[in-house]
Structure formats: structure tokens, C-alpha cells
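Ex. 9. Protein: ATP-binding cassette domain-containing protein.
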Amino acid sequence: MSDAAIATADLTKHYGRVAALEGLDLEVRRGEIFGFLGPNGSGKTTTIRLLLGLIRPTRGSATVLGVPVGDVVRSHRHLGYVPGEVALWPQLTGDEVLRLLGNVGGWVDPGFRAELIDRFHVDPSERIRSMSKGNRQKVALVAALMGRPDVLLLDEPTAGLDPLMEEQFQVVARDAAARGQTIFLSSHILDEVQDLCDRVGILRAGRLVEVAALEELRRIGATILEVVFDGEAPALEGVEGVAGVEPMAGVRGGVRITVAGEPDALIRRLAGHRVIRLHTVEPSLEEIFLTYY
Ligand SMILES: Nc1ncnc2c1ncn2[C@@H]1O[C@H](COP(=O)(O)OP(=O)(O)OP(=O)(O)O)[C@@H](O)[C@H]1O
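Predicted C-alpha cells for ATP-binding cassette domain-containing protein:
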């Protein structure tokens, strides 16, 4: 029996010829916030559905706090879940949904539920049917969090949230982890998880290609800088951390610089020139893969 919050061994799911997930070996520690990153279709949702026991693996196994995920009656005593596509009863109000799910899920701390409703600005009297996508997602988040489950499986939990609510989510997630709860959250946006997660796993076409701690992630995390100089752009190739330089089309003195790791040496070099515009662009996951591999 594993002491990990989540442990998978050779976990694999094939749909016909499509390998949605291939040979996943992963251990998530108790109290950890683990980010599960990958582009669309890389197998994040498949992994979460396997952990929930909603689908059966083609091969391999997984446990939640030592309980095999196929034993759903026992495993779900420890689990909270927010799906990527929230489906709730449209005719019920937020409050009715939370009461119903509270009864199904077991123990709920009413004071904590009220705090969550407040934090996420949920209007409990509104019917689900008339709520926006983001507001429905917030109800699902409150429902998953209110019973303080040992392990939370969150599929792109902040996808529909505005920045303020995303911040609230981060506060609540950190509190939960500090209490010893484990959070497994999927995302296709590096930026969204890098401030929150202790470690991230990077999934590509069904395979885990990297598990990295935050410091390593900074090394992986490429930054793209668009700089416009007053006059000709200086030569920047060879400056420490600079992975690529290309001219910006149609902008005199403009270059697009890809920096892998710390931008310190580049900034020192830039300081010797007159810079009239500077803009940072967050790279996509694909761009990070390209820089890193
Ligand atoms: N029920 C299914 N039948 C057939 N193929 C499926 C099924 N579910 C998922 N797949 C395929 O498995 C692969 C992984 O899908 P999955 O939904 O796990 O990706 P994802 O990383 O969650 O993507 P997204 O970010 O778009 O939600 C995709 O190629 C998808 O088309």
C-alpha cells in the first residue's frame, strides 16, 4: 500500500488506436499541490477520469490514499472533484445544489461553506440555468471544497474564472494544502499553475515527459521579449540565457528575443542601449516544449 495521496503505475488508456494515456507512473505526495500540464488532447481529463473510477484502464493501476481507484465507494470518501465541463441541475438554485451535494458527499462544515460562497461571490439564490459558465464553475468549486476532502481532483478549475476569482482560488487552494489536503489540478496554461504548484507534470500526447519542481520550471519557462531599440538593434546572440533572436517584421530596430531561464544577463546588455519599447509575451506550452527539447 502506498503512502502517497495519488499513485499510478503504468496507467494506460487506449480508445481503439488512440493512446489517450500511455504508461503513466506518478506519485503525488500528501499535502502537495500538483499541476498536471499539457496541451489540448494530451490526456489530462482521461487521467482524472481514471482516478475517479469513471473509466477503466486498459492497463496499469492507480490508488488514492492507498485505495485502488476501482473501489469507488471507498476511494470517493477521500475525493472531491470539479470537472472541466460543469454539469449541474439547471432548475435548482446554487444553494439547493450545494445542499444536495452536501447530503450526497457526507460531512460539510456549514461555516466553511458560507465562507467559500462569500469568497467566490456566489449568489446562492440564483438558478443554475441562468448562471454564466464561470459562476456555475464557482458553485462546483464550492461543492468540491466544502467537505474538505483529502484529495481534490480539479480539471482546469480556473478556466472560466476572472482574475479576481482566480486569486481567491489560489488562496483557498493554498489553505487546503496547508491543512494537509492534496490538490491535483490540470491546466494547459503554464502561467496559471506555476505560482501555485509545488511540482508540475508535463503531459504530451498521452505521455508524461517531465515532472519538475518550481525552480526547475523557471528554467524550463521561456520568456519572449519584444524590444524596440532607438536605431539598429545590437547583436544579442551569445548573451547568457538568450535562446533565439529574430527581427520583428516591419518594425525598425525591433527584435523578438526568446530567453530560456533567467533574463538577468540580457537585461544588463539591454541597459547599455536606448530601448523605446519593451513587451513580454507569455510563451505557449508548445513554445516551451520547443525551447526545452
Ligand atoms: N471517449 C473517448 N473516445 C475516444 N477517444 C477519446 C475519448 N476520450 C478521450 N479521447 C481521446 O483521448 C485523447 C486525450 O483526451 P483528453 O480529453 O484526456 O485530453 P485533455 O488533455 O484533457 O484535453 P483538453 O485540454 O482538450 O481537455 C484525445 O486524443 C481524445 O480525442
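Check your answer against this statement. Residues 15, 18, 20, 38, 40-46, 84, 188 surround adenosine-5'-triphosphate (CB under 6 Å).
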